[in-house]
């Protein structure tokens, strides 16, 4: 039995990989969208923050016995706290300038972080063991589903939904959106807008670190893992619409599945299909699928 000429085990296996990749795309692009939507900063350090989150988990386990579940909380907090310093000391000076300055600064920070970790750990990669509670898998008949990969999808999409709900359906989210549009008016109402901006950048960086911890048992933890992924994530953000929360989530998962199907039916195009879609979307709708037209 085949599905459009492809064995079901191969098709569903690739779709599972696509869903996992799409979950990472969604979490990472969500962090980028939150930062850009509030701060108007194109955060090219996002891939480095993702990589640092994975290394925090690996170093925590190897050196201090910090388990996976503790790292899921610790890594976003540590990366977020360090990002507070970056925002306060550097990014805050660039908010009134062209987007290019923020991009160049964060790109430089990403190169520094990557260089430091390459100097100490090389590029061969370090393995991170799947937590004991999530080892093994389930036989679904048409495919074998590893428990950890199922957990990655559930955890990533759960966090994405929680962030979307917080921004779109709560008073805090309404305040953030208002501060984006009219920071002077929100400041006049007694709300500390600079603090909101600092916490927003820290939250976006924390999302990247959370994705890094999720990725650690799936991929080799190495200094290049962020730079290998960030270009694709930026394409996802552009397709979904810069600053669009819903666009980042839907587009991230959808493009992960499209990429997986391309690997099955036309493998030669799998490395460029997301960028081809980006070109087409920009030609038809420059603001992105879910972005606001100027």
CATH topology description: ABC transporter involved in vitamin B12 uptake, BtuC
- Spans where pLDDT lies below 50 across 5 or more residues: none
CATH architecture name: Orthogonal Bundle
Strand content of the residues, in percent? under 5%
Number of helices: 11
Kindly provide the radius of gyration, computed on alpha-carbon positions and rounded to a whole number of angstroms: 19 Å
What's the average pLDDT?
91
Number of discrete domains:
1
User: Quick one: biggest sheet?
Assistant: 2 strands, antiparallel
What class, by secondary structure content?
mainly alpha
What's the total number of strands? Answer: 2
**Helicity level:** over 70%
Straight-line distance between termini: 50 Å
Walk across the major sheet and give the strand order.
Answer: 1-2
Helix/strand order, N-terminal first: HHHHEEHHHHHHH
Report the principal-axis shape.
globular
Query: Class, according to the CATH hierarchy?
Result: Mainly Alpha
